[in-house]
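Session log. Operator J.P. requested a structure for one protein chain; no other inputs attached. Running the standard single-chain path with token output.
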Amino acid sequence: MNGAEAFIATIRQCGVEVCFANPGTSEMQLVGAIDKQDGMRAILGLFEGVVTGAADGYGRMADKPAVTLLHLGPGLANGLANLHNARRAGAPVINMVGDHATYHLHHDAPLTSDAAGVARPMSDWVRISRSERDLAQAGAEAFKLAQTYPGRVATVIVPADHAWSEGAAAVAPPSPPETPLAPPSVIADAAEALRAEPGAKCLYLGGRALREDALIQAGRIAAAVGARLVCETFPARLQRGAGRVAVERLPYFGEMAEAFLSGFGTIVFCGAEPPVSFFAYPGKPSWLSPADAKLVRLASMREDALAALSGLAEALDAPAQPAALQQPQTFPHGEGKLSVEDIGAALSDLTPERAIVSDESATSGLALYAMTAGAKPHDWLCLTGGAIGQGLPVAVGAAVACPDRKVIALQADGSAMYTNQALWTMAREQLDVVTILLNNGSYAILNIELMRVGVQNPGPKALSMLDLRRPEIDWAQMAQSMGVPAIRATTAEAFRQALADALAAKGPRLIEALL
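Structure written below.
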């Protein structure tokens, strides 16, 4: 084998089945190796942010990594924002980034860069292969690192001469990494705090603590001590819906989050760190937990959340049945001009069981999230890292990971423009994704933020930087140009019918909701 073939054969033997790719000249040996490898699906993205975001969505739903194929340092740089999101989400991802041949680097050709230096800020681990024989070993190490609980971003830099040189061989898959456990003494301390401390109690959850099995244990704890269950503002993957254990979501704005947490005397954290404000604002708090509350870290994002919550439930002699089960909800059908509430009511009624929701709905999302709490059981994927342009690519990856499940992308118009090429990939792969494009013609969140930082009476120049209506973007036409059937909805009745039709069909659909 050449180095590329050995690398691809190794990661396939490890269990990698999907490559999201945007290759260039330096990666042609890797392209050829993927072509020869049985069981490796290749999916083209027309922008690197689509590739990395799709790998994030795949990792969140499959709990194992896909591999990306990226062109040199500049191509990797184009995908960094969604690698930031993946890293914050604890998603398993392997990146293979081509580079110039080792003997060519010193010539400083136009695309020469410090590829490893580009990778490090958004990767948990970076490795440059040392030879064609070392390349397969680097792949095995990358897989093991990516599978470290709950998931990590591993990047391998592949010099072109290592990829094309003969004399390499695949290596055996590594043993799986052990998942760190919360120490028994920490579980005992958390149990004592929940039993003995006065005042209201909160179990604050993130990461894998928001999977259904872990939430059942959290619900048992809530039943035992009367604690409220609260989750991160933007969880990576929350399993929710009627019949599941319900959690309250921490508000986004810092002062609202501080007020929300102010009444708690004890907060136990599992799968998450104590929350802080997303941004600094004049005269507003950064640290959000009450100064006089007892804060207990039960398990970090990197420690087994299910084991920690199960241990805590047993330490509390919690009842077998969890508290706080979500009840079904229905809302009145609206009429006339379309509103966010009309969209929420339709989603509450029509979201199919086991659906996956990729939420980058921005300002519209608060109502949609709240109104779908009692929908049929589903998974909700959020913008965990805050770098916009994630929603459509994550929907791509989720649909590839779970082809038997309907994916719904709730997508704001401004951030959709960052990675609209994902629509083309949906069409090419015939992915079962319904995109609801929320078109309000504005970066609406930034209009709010402008006031929050104290800008008074903004003028036309400031407002023009937040406006998307000059010229207006016709999302239905854009989607159709990329092969995705699309329709515009301006009334509640039209939207509900369009959603019902799209959910009944197979393959990608887009509904442009004009708000």
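Operator note: The CA atoms of residues 115 and 262 lie 45 Å apart.
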